Amino acid sequence: MLRLNGHPDNVSRPPFGVIAVHRSEENSALRCADLFCGIGGFHVAARNLGLHVVFACDIDEPARQAYEANFGLRPWGDITSIEPADAPDFDLLFAGFPCQPFSIIGRQRGFADPRGTLFFELLKFIKEKRPVGIVLENVKQLSTINRGDVLQRILDDISQLGYSVDSRVLNALDFGLPQKRERTIIVASQKPFAFFDWPTNRVKMTPLVDILETEPPASYFVSEYIRRKRQEAHTPTVSPAIWHENKGGNVSSHEWSCALRAGASHNYLLVDGIRRLTPREQLRLQGFPDDWEIVCSDAQTRKQTGNAVPVPMVQQVIERMVNHVGQHSIARQPATPQ
Ligand SMILES: C[S@@+](CC[C@H](N)C(=O)[O-])C[C@H]1O[C@@H](n2cnc3c(N)ncnc32)[C@H](O)[C@@H]1O
After folding, report:
1. Phi then psi for 21, rounded to 5 degrees?
2. Of the candidate ranges 114-118, 177-181, 205-209, 323-327, the one whose mean pLDDT is the lowest
3. For residue 244, what are the β-bridge partners?
4. Ligand 1 contact via 309 beta carbon (within 6 Å)
5. Which residue ranges make up each domain of the chain?
6. Neighbours of 245 (CB within 10 A)
7. Looking at the whole model, is its pTM more than 0.90?
Protein backbone atom coordinates (compact mmCIF):
# COMPACT_ATOMS: atom_id res chain seq x y z
CA MET A 1 0.00 0.00 0.00
CA LEU A 2 1.29 3.46 -0.82
CA ARG A 3 2.01 5.60 2.18
CA LEU A 4 0.81 9.15 2.03
CA ASN A 5 3.12 12.00 2.74
CA GLY A 6 1.90 13.52 5.97
CA HIS A 7 -0.37 10.65 6.94
CA PRO A 8 -2.78 11.96 9.60
CA ASP A 9 -1.24 9.71 12.22
CA ASN A 10 2.15 11.27 11.66
CA VAL A 11 1.59 14.97 11.24
CA SER A 12 0.61 17.77 13.53
CA ARG A 13 -2.11 19.66 11.73
CA PRO A 14 -1.57 23.29 10.85
CA PRO A 15 -3.72 25.63 12.90
CA PHE A 16 -6.99 26.56 11.30
CA GLY A 17 -6.79 29.15 8.57
CA VAL A 18 -3.25 28.25 7.54
CA ILE A 19 -4.09 25.02 5.73
CA ALA A 20 -1.72 25.04 2.82
CA VAL A 21 -3.50 24.80 -0.48
CA HIS A 22 -1.81 22.68 -3.06
CA ARG A 23 -3.00 23.84 -6.43
CA SER A 24 -2.60 20.55 -8.17
CA GLU A 25 -1.28 20.00 -11.65
CA GLU A 26 -3.88 18.34 -13.80
CA ASN A 27 -1.66 15.43 -14.68
CA SER A 28 -0.55 14.53 -11.17
CA ALA A 29 -3.82 13.71 -9.52
CA LEU A 30 -6.74 11.39 -9.36
CA ARG A 31 -9.77 12.98 -10.99
CA CYS A 32 -12.70 13.75 -8.74
CA ALA A 33 -16.38 14.64 -9.10
CA ASP A 34 -18.15 16.89 -6.61
CA LEU A 35 -21.90 16.29 -6.91
CA PHE A 36 -24.33 18.63 -5.10
CA CYS A 37 -21.16 20.68 -4.73
CA GLY A 38 -22.52 23.75 -2.89
CA ILE A 39 -19.50 25.97 -2.32
CA GLY A 40 -17.12 23.03 -2.46
CA GLY A 41 -16.07 21.80 0.98
CA PHE A 42 -15.12 18.53 -0.70
CA HIS A 43 -13.24 20.45 -3.39
CA VAL A 44 -11.15 22.40 -0.87
CA ALA A 45 -10.27 19.12 0.88
CA ALA A 46 -9.40 17.41 -2.40
CA ARG A 47 -7.30 20.38 -3.51
CA ASN A 48 -5.43 20.39 -0.20
CA LEU A 49 -4.53 16.79 -0.97
CA GLY A 50 -3.37 17.54 -4.50
CA LEU A 51 -6.36 15.90 -6.17
CA HIS A 52 -8.05 17.38 -9.20
CA VAL A 53 -11.79 18.01 -9.38
CA VAL A 54 -12.96 17.74 -12.99
CA PHE A 55 -16.73 17.89 -12.58
CA ALA A 56 -19.17 19.54 -10.20
CA CYS A 57 -22.88 20.24 -10.20
CA ASP A 58 -25.33 22.21 -8.09
CA ILE A 59 -28.77 23.59 -8.80
CA ASP A 60 -28.18 26.81 -6.85
CA GLU A 61 -26.84 29.67 -8.99
CA PRO A 62 -25.22 31.76 -6.20
CA ALA A 63 -23.40 28.64 -4.94
CA ARG A 64 -22.24 27.97 -8.51
CA GLN A 65 -20.93 31.53 -8.75
CA ALA A 66 -18.97 31.19 -5.49
CA TYR A 67 -17.61 27.83 -6.64
CA GLU A 68 -16.50 29.14 -10.02
CA ALA A 69 -14.90 32.25 -8.49
CA ASN A 70 -12.81 30.12 -6.15
CA PHE A 71 -11.96 27.05 -8.21
CA GLY A 72 -12.19 28.29 -11.80
CA LEU A 73 -14.56 25.39 -12.49
CA ARG A 74 -18.14 26.19 -13.49
CA PRO A 75 -20.50 23.64 -11.88
CA TRP A 76 -23.19 22.12 -14.03
CA GLY A 77 -26.79 22.62 -12.85
CA ASP A 78 -29.71 20.40 -11.85
CA ILE A 79 -28.49 16.83 -11.55
CA THR A 80 -31.83 15.50 -12.79
CA SER A 81 -31.16 17.11 -16.16
CA ILE A 82 -27.62 15.73 -16.56
CA GLU A 83 -26.87 12.49 -18.38
CA PRO A 84 -23.94 10.96 -16.46
CA ALA A 85 -22.43 9.79 -19.77
CA ASP A 86 -22.09 13.47 -20.80
CA ALA A 87 -19.93 14.31 -17.77
CA PRO A 88 -16.14 13.85 -17.84
CA ASP A 89 -14.76 10.62 -16.38
CA PHE A 90 -13.49 10.59 -12.79
CA ASP A 91 -11.89 8.24 -10.27
CA LEU A 92 -13.32 9.50 -6.97
CA LEU A 93 -16.87 10.64 -6.33
CA PHE A 94 -17.79 13.04 -3.52
CA ALA A 95 -21.33 14.13 -2.72
CA GLY A 96 -23.11 15.87 0.11
CA PHE A 97 -26.49 14.90 -1.21
CA PRO A 98 -29.38 17.13 -0.06
CA CYS A 99 -30.18 16.48 3.54
CA GLN A 100 -33.62 18.03 4.06
CA PRO A 101 -35.49 14.74 3.58
CA PHE A 102 -33.34 13.06 6.22
CA SER A 103 -32.91 15.79 8.80
CA ILE A 104 -34.88 16.46 11.95
CA ILE A 105 -35.95 19.71 10.37
CA GLY A 106 -37.25 17.74 7.38
CA ARG A 107 -39.43 15.67 9.76
CA GLN A 108 -37.57 12.47 8.95
CA ARG A 109 -39.63 11.36 5.98
CA GLY A 110 -36.67 9.76 4.23
CA PHE A 111 -37.39 8.34 0.81
CA ALA A 112 -41.05 9.29 1.15
CA ASP A 113 -39.92 12.81 0.30
CA PRO A 114 -39.18 13.22 -3.44
CA ARG A 115 -36.00 15.18 -2.60
CA GLY A 116 -34.72 11.93 -1.09
CA THR A 117 -34.76 10.46 -4.54
CA LEU A 118 -31.81 12.66 -5.49
CA PHE A 119 -29.77 9.81 -4.06
CA PHE A 120 -30.90 7.77 -7.05
CA GLU A 121 -29.48 10.41 -9.38
CA LEU A 122 -26.19 9.90 -7.60
CA LEU A 123 -26.49 6.12 -8.12
CA LYS A 124 -26.80 6.71 -11.85
CA PHE A 125 -23.41 8.43 -11.79
CA ILE A 126 -21.87 5.53 -9.88
CA LYS A 127 -23.27 3.02 -12.39
CA GLU A 128 -22.04 4.97 -15.39
CA LYS A 129 -18.64 6.18 -14.17
CA ARG A 130 -17.60 3.36 -11.83
CA PRO A 131 -15.42 5.53 -9.55
CA VAL A 132 -12.79 3.58 -7.59
CA GLY A 133 -13.67 5.40 -4.37
CA ILE A 134 -16.72 7.23 -3.04
CA VAL A 135 -17.19 9.56 -0.06
CA LEU A 136 -20.71 10.78 0.75
CA GLU A 137 -21.94 13.10 3.48
CA ASN A 138 -25.33 13.59 5.03
CA VAL A 139 -26.94 14.62 8.30
CA LYS A 140 -26.39 12.55 11.43
CA GLN A 141 -30.06 11.51 11.48
CA LEU A 142 -29.57 9.54 8.28
CA SER A 143 -28.01 6.85 10.48
CA THR A 144 -31.09 6.47 12.68
CA ILE A 145 -34.10 7.43 10.59
CA ASN A 146 -36.56 4.51 10.26
CA ARG A 147 -34.31 2.63 12.72
CA GLY A 148 -31.45 2.76 10.22
CA ASP A 149 -33.45 1.37 7.27
CA VAL A 150 -32.79 4.35 4.99
CA LEU A 151 -29.04 4.22 5.56
CA GLN A 152 -29.05 0.45 5.09
CA ARG A 153 -30.89 0.84 1.81
CA ILE A 154 -28.32 3.35 0.60
CA LEU A 155 -25.46 1.05 1.61
CA ASP A 156 -27.17 -1.94 -0.04
CA ASP A 157 -27.76 -0.05 -3.28
CA ILE A 158 -24.09 0.92 -3.54
CA SER A 159 -22.90 -2.51 -2.43
CA GLN A 160 -24.98 -4.16 -5.16
CA LEU A 161 -22.90 -2.24 -7.70
CA GLY A 162 -19.82 -4.16 -6.52
CA TYR A 163 -18.51 -1.86 -3.78
CA SER A 164 -17.34 -2.42 -0.22
CA VAL A 165 -19.29 0.05 1.91
CA ASP A 166 -19.15 1.46 5.41
CA SER A 167 -20.53 4.44 7.31
CA ARG A 168 -19.84 6.32 10.49
CA VAL A 169 -20.99 9.47 12.28
CA LEU A 170 -18.11 11.94 12.55
CA ASN A 171 -18.00 15.24 14.41
CA ALA A 172 -16.16 18.33 13.09
CA LEU A 173 -15.13 19.07 16.70
CA ASP A 174 -12.84 16.02 16.55
CA PHE A 175 -11.05 17.43 13.52
CA GLY A 176 -9.85 20.70 15.02
CA LEU A 177 -12.80 22.94 14.16
CA PRO A 178 -14.61 24.78 16.96
CA GLN A 179 -17.97 23.63 15.62
CA LYS A 180 -20.07 20.72 16.88
CA ARG A 181 -21.28 19.30 13.60
CA GLU A 182 -22.08 15.61 13.48
CA ARG A 183 -22.51 14.08 10.08
CA THR A 184 -23.04 10.63 8.62
CA ILE A 185 -20.17 9.80 6.32
CA ILE A 186 -20.50 6.91 3.86
CA VAL A 187 -17.46 5.44 2.12
CA ALA A 188 -17.38 2.92 -0.71
CA SER A 189 -14.58 1.38 -2.69
CA GLN A 190 -14.24 -1.04 -5.58
CA LYS A 191 -11.15 -2.42 -3.89
CA PRO A 192 -12.63 -4.52 -1.08
CA PHE A 193 -12.13 -3.67 2.58
CA ALA A 194 -13.28 -5.55 5.66
CA PHE A 195 -13.21 -2.36 7.73
CA PHE A 196 -12.54 1.14 6.50
CA ASP A 197 -9.61 2.90 8.15
CA TRP A 198 -11.67 5.65 9.83
CA PRO A 199 -9.77 8.53 11.42
CA THR A 200 -9.66 8.06 15.18
CA ASN A 201 -7.09 10.62 16.37
CA ARG A 202 -8.68 13.70 17.91
CA VAL A 203 -7.19 16.89 16.53
CA LYS A 204 -6.81 19.67 19.09
CA MET A 205 -9.53 22.27 18.67
CA THR A 206 -8.58 25.63 17.19
CA PRO A 207 -9.60 28.18 19.84
CA LEU A 208 -12.55 30.38 18.95
CA VAL A 209 -10.38 33.44 19.38
CA ASP A 210 -8.42 32.34 16.29
CA ILE A 211 -11.63 32.19 14.28
CA LEU A 212 -13.21 35.46 15.38
CA GLU A 213 -12.53 38.70 13.57
CA THR A 214 -10.97 41.36 15.75
CA GLU A 215 -13.00 44.29 14.44
CA PRO A 216 -16.30 43.05 13.02
CA PRO A 217 -18.42 45.76 11.37
CA ALA A 218 -21.08 47.41 13.54
CA SER A 219 -23.83 45.92 11.36
CA TYR A 220 -23.20 42.48 12.94
CA PHE A 221 -24.11 43.65 16.43
CA VAL A 222 -27.65 42.92 17.61
CA SER A 223 -30.09 45.43 19.02
CA GLU A 224 -30.04 46.41 22.67
CA TYR A 225 -33.38 44.60 23.05
CA ILE A 226 -32.03 41.25 21.80
CA ARG A 227 -28.84 41.62 23.79
CA ARG A 228 -30.82 42.19 26.99
CA LYS A 229 -33.16 39.26 26.29
CA ARG A 230 -30.16 36.95 25.84
CA GLN A 231 -28.47 38.19 28.97
CA GLU A 232 -31.64 37.67 30.97
CA ALA A 233 -31.87 34.10 29.70
CA HIS A 234 -28.25 33.07 30.17
CA THR A 235 -25.13 33.60 32.29
CA PRO A 236 -21.99 32.48 30.46
CA THR A 237 -19.04 30.75 32.10
CA VAL A 238 -16.58 31.32 29.28
CA SER A 239 -15.65 34.05 26.80
CA PRO A 240 -15.30 34.24 23.90
CA ALA A 241 -18.19 31.86 23.42
CA ILE A 242 -20.90 31.20 20.89
CA TRP A 243 -24.32 31.58 22.40
CA HIS A 244 -26.88 29.23 20.95
CA GLU A 245 -30.65 29.66 21.18
CA ASN A 246 -32.61 26.46 20.54
CA LYS A 247 -36.10 26.18 19.15
CA GLY A 248 -37.60 26.23 22.64
CA GLY A 249 -35.86 29.53 23.40
CA ASN A 250 -33.26 28.04 25.76
CA VAL A 251 -29.89 29.73 25.53
CA SER A 252 -26.56 28.00 26.16
CA SER A 253 -22.98 28.97 25.39
CA HIS A 254 -19.81 27.05 24.58
CA GLU A 255 -16.24 27.69 23.53
CA TRP A 256 -17.27 26.16 20.23
CA SER A 257 -20.20 26.82 17.91
CA CYS A 258 -23.24 24.62 17.48
CA ALA A 259 -23.73 23.48 13.87
CA LEU A 260 -24.15 26.25 11.33
CA ARG A 261 -27.55 25.81 9.68
CA ALA A 262 -28.69 27.01 6.27
CA GLY A 263 -32.18 28.02 7.32
CA ALA A 264 -31.63 29.06 10.92
CA SER A 265 -33.01 32.29 12.33
CA HIS A 266 -30.74 35.30 12.07
CA ASN A 267 -29.78 35.34 15.75
CA TYR A 268 -29.53 31.58 16.32
CA LEU A 269 -25.79 31.88 17.02
CA LEU A 270 -24.35 34.99 18.66
CA VAL A 271 -20.76 35.70 19.65
CA ASP A 272 -20.86 36.42 23.41
CA GLY A 273 -24.58 37.08 23.02
CA ILE A 274 -23.96 40.41 21.32
CA ARG A 275 -23.25 39.91 17.63
CA ARG A 276 -23.78 37.62 14.67
CA LEU A 277 -20.98 35.70 12.99
CA THR A 278 -19.48 37.35 9.93
CA PRO A 279 -19.31 35.42 6.62
CA ARG A 280 -15.54 35.00 7.08
CA GLU A 281 -16.06 33.51 10.54
CA GLN A 282 -18.70 31.13 9.17
CA LEU A 283 -16.30 29.98 6.46
CA ARG A 284 -13.53 29.50 9.03
CA LEU A 285 -15.87 27.43 11.20
CA GLN A 286 -16.20 25.05 8.25
CA GLY A 287 -12.46 24.96 7.58
CA PHE A 288 -12.38 27.10 4.44
CA PRO A 289 -9.06 28.92 4.00
CA ASP A 290 -8.73 32.65 4.39
CA ASP A 291 -7.93 33.12 0.71
CA TRP A 292 -11.49 31.97 -0.03
CA GLU A 293 -13.10 34.80 -1.97
CA ILE A 294 -16.56 35.84 -0.76
CA VAL A 295 -18.57 36.82 -3.85
CA CYS A 296 -22.14 36.40 -2.57
CA SER A 297 -24.35 38.36 -0.19
CA ASP A 298 -24.23 37.71 3.56
CA ALA A 299 -27.56 35.88 3.36
CA GLN A 300 -26.32 33.58 0.59
CA THR A 301 -23.01 32.93 2.33
CA ARG A 302 -24.86 32.09 5.54
CA LYS A 303 -26.98 29.54 3.65
CA GLN A 304 -23.95 28.16 1.81
CA THR A 305 -21.80 27.73 4.91
CA GLY A 306 -24.77 26.16 6.72
CA ASN A 307 -24.93 23.56 3.93
CA ALA A 308 -21.20 22.99 3.55
CA VAL A 309 -19.20 19.99 4.65
CA PRO A 310 -16.41 20.59 7.22
CA VAL A 311 -13.19 20.56 5.23
CA PRO A 312 -10.68 18.93 7.66
CA MET A 313 -13.18 16.20 8.52
CA VAL A 314 -13.71 15.02 4.95
CA GLN A 315 -10.09 15.68 4.10
CA GLN A 316 -9.00 12.97 6.52
CA VAL A 317 -11.58 10.56 5.12
CA ILE A 318 -10.59 11.27 1.51
CA GLU A 319 -6.92 10.88 2.41
CA ARG A 320 -7.62 7.45 3.88
CA MET A 321 -9.74 6.50 0.89
CA VAL A 322 -6.92 7.45 -1.49
CA ASN A 323 -4.50 5.49 0.67
CA HIS A 324 -6.84 2.50 0.44
CA VAL A 325 -7.32 2.59 -3.30
CA GLY A 326 -3.55 3.01 -3.53
CA GLN A 327 -3.30 4.68 -6.90
CA HIS A 328 -1.84 7.99 -5.97
CA SER A 329 0.61 9.33 -3.45
CA ILE A 330 -0.36 12.65 -2.01
CA ALA A 331 2.23 15.40 -1.78
CA ARG A 332 1.03 17.58 1.07
CA GLN A 333 2.47 21.05 0.98
CA PRO A 334 4.01 22.32 4.22
CA ALA A 335 1.87 24.77 6.17
CA THR A 336 2.79 28.41 5.68
CA PRO A 337 2.64 30.77 8.64
CA GLN A 338 -0.22 33.30 8.62
C1 LIG B 1 -25.85 19.61 1.71
S2 LIG B 1 -25.57 20.70 0.39
C3 LIG B 1 -23.97 20.20 -0.14
C4 LIG B 1 -22.90 21.16 0.29
C5 LIG B 1 -21.51 20.92 -0.25
N6 LIG B 1 -21.00 19.62 0.03
C7 LIG B 1 -20.55 21.98 0.30
O8 LIG B 1 -19.53 21.65 0.89
O9 LIG B 1 -20.85 23.17 0.13
C10 LIG B 1 -26.62 20.07 -0.87
C11 LIG B 1 -26.56 20.84 -2.17
O12 LIG B 1 -27.39 20.16 -3.13
C13 LIG B 1 -27.85 21.13 -4.03
N14 LIG B 1 -28.99 20.57 -4.79
C15 LIG B 1 -30.27 20.37 -4.39
N16 LIG B 1 -30.99 19.84 -5.37
C17 LIG B 1 -30.15 19.68 -6.43
C18 LIG B 1 -30.31 19.18 -7.75
N19 LIG B 1 -31.50 18.76 -8.19
N20 LIG B 1 -29.24 19.17 -8.59
C21 LIG B 1 -28.04 19.64 -8.16
N22 LIG B 1 -27.84 20.14 -6.92
C23 LIG B 1 -28.87 20.15 -6.06
C24 LIG B 1 -28.20 22.32 -3.13
O25 LIG B 1 -28.26 23.52 -3.87
C26 LIG B 1 -27.07 22.26 -2.10
O27 LIG B 1 -26.03 23.15 -2.46
Report:
1. -100, 120
2. 114-118
3. 252, 269
4. yes
5. 26-205+303-325, 208-297
6. 22
7. no
Q: Return the pLDDT at 5.
A: 29
Which residues does 106 contact at the CB level (< 8 Å), separation at least 6?
A: 99, 100, 113, 115
Q: How far is the CA of 38 from the centre of ligand 1 (A)?
A: 5
Residues belonging to the active site: 99
Indicate if ligand 1 lies below 6 Å from the C-beta of 96. yes
84 touches ligand 1 (CB under 6 Å)? no
How sure is the predictor about 179, in pLDDT bands with cuts at 50, 70 and 90?
Answer: very high
DSSP state of 104: T
Going by C-alpha positions, the residue among 3, 315, 334 that lies closest to residue 170 is 315
The minimum-distance atom of ligand 1 relative to the CA of 34 is: 6
* Ranges of H-type helices in the chain: 41-48, 61-71, 118-129, 149-159, 208-211, 224-233, 279-285, 298-307, 311-325
Nearest CA to ligand 1 atom 11: 36
From the CA of 115, give the closest atom in ligand 1.
Answer: 16
In sequence order, what are the residues at sequence separation of 6 or more whose Cβ sits closer than 8 angstroms to the Cβ of residue 184? 137, 138, 139, 140, 141, 142, 143, 151, 167, 168, 169
Axis crossing angle, helix 41-48 with helix 61-71, rounded to the nearest 10: 20
Q: Is the pLDDT of residue 10 over 70?
A: no
Query: Is 26-205+303-325 a CATH 3.20.20.140 domain?
Result: no
Closest C-alpha to 306, from 151, 96, 74, 35: 96
Categorize the per-residue pLDDT at 148 as very low, low, confident or very high, splitting at 50, 70 and 90. Answer: confident
Residue 24 has pLDDT above 60, yes or no: no
Q: Dihedral (C-alpha) 209, 282, 71, 100: value to the nearest 10 degrees?
A: 140
